[in-house]
Every structure is written in C-alpha cells, then in structure tokens.
Amino acid sequence: MNIILFGPPGAGKGTQADKIVKNFNLYKISTGDLLREEIKNNTALGEKIKSKIDRGLLVSDDIINNLIIKILSKKKYYNSIIFDGYPRNLDQAKNLDLLVKKYHQKISCALNLNADKKTLINRILGRLVCTKCGLIFNKNFNPPVKKEYKCNLKHLTTRMDDKEETISNRFEAYAKKTLPILNYYADQKILHKVDGTREISQIYDEIRSIIASLET
Question: Which of 72, 47, 41, 74 is nearest to 59 (CA)?
Fold first, then answer.
C-alpha cells in the first residue's frame, strides 16, 4: 500500500512515519530528506533549494515531482511507500495520482495529523534529528533514550529550517497550498483525520488501527 501523511510543520509526521515504516514494512519518502540530501551533496540544485528553504519558502513543483518519479519508478518501492511531506499543494496531489497510475500503483489512504499552532511551534523549536541514522526526537516531549537511540549524542542536531524566523512563513505556505488538498482526498473517501495533540503512542495506536483496517 501507499500512504500519504499530512499535518502542519511540527505535527509529528516524521515520528509517526518512522513507526509505520517499522511495523508495516513500508519505505518512508520524505521530500524534506530528499531536498536536504541535495543540499548536503553541494549540487547546483542543492544551492537553489537551500536559498528557498532558508527563507521559509517551498521549492518548485518540477523539482519535487522529478524526485518523486525517481522513487516510484524503482521496483524496491512498489506499493510500499509512506509519503511524508508530499504532496504539498493541489497540483502536486493531482500529479501524484497520474504518477501512481503510470507505475500501476495506488494511494490507499491519506492521514491528517491535527494540532494547534502553539503546540506545533514548541515541537519545532525542540526538534532534534540524528545526522547518522535519521531518527527524530524532541528535547521537550520525546528526548532520546538509550533503549531507542544507539548513536552518539553528538550526532543530534536541529534542522537548518527549524528556526523561529521561518516558522510563520511555513505556516502561511501550508495554510494556502496544503490544506486544500485535504478536500481533494476527502472527495476520494480516503482521508482519515487524527488528533495530533496527544501522546506519541496514542496517536500511533489510532494510525495503526486505520492502516490495519486497510489490509483486511
């Protein structure tokens, strides 16, 4: 199955996606990770991407869509993807529908994590990412513990785009371009709303039930 995970910045999409991947043998495809990889590799494309991200802006649809095509065309990911951070606007959603059909796949469901702005800002400012293994933690709500985190603490860092001055721009972009997609998937009757203000385990229990119901 292919799943789309929605939610405003700081809603916990990455954390929940990691749990879904582990328990349902799916691959997490985060456009944020793909873009940061381009930046890390110091490519010409990466420099353009960095300039936009530093200003809290979204990169062009063409760049994102080309990255997604590379993923969908690989047999490794056939009908076993959870999309984290994509699509971000209605055009991308419609393009994704065309791409999954082209590669003989489908979108099984879209999950939307809801949370209030104050909670989201606190999560964003406290977020920590391991540069070695990619695990995501939060120094306020979900600090790393030895049982779950095997890497050295020196590998934990904040994302380059997790800065207070960029948060407002990201919220505005989400409200204008991403929220309308929810109606698009609601019309297809594959949208599921999830309360993202609860504890991580409670959120995941609901998500797990939804996904399990798709397999029956």
Answer: 47
Nearest of 67, 61, 91, 94 to residue 81 by alpha carbon:
67
**Which structural domain, as residue segments, surrounds residue 79?**
3-116+178-215
Sign of CA dihedral 8, 13, 14, 15: positive
Is there a domain that residue 35 lies in?
yes
Q: How many domains does the chain have?
A: 1
**Cα(33)–Cα(17) distance, integer angstroms:** 13
In a domain, 196, yes or no: yes
Predicted confidence (pLDDT) per residue in 3-32, tens digit: 999 988 778 888 899 999 999 999 999 887
* Cβ-contact 17, 5 below 8 angstroms: yes
Asked whether residue 172 is assigned to any structural domain, the reply reads: no
- Taking only the tens place, the pLDDT of each residue in 43-101 is 888 888 888 888 877 788 888 888 899 899 999 999 999 998 799 889 999 999 999 99
Which CATH number covers residue 109?
3.40.50.300
Stated pTM of the model: 0.74
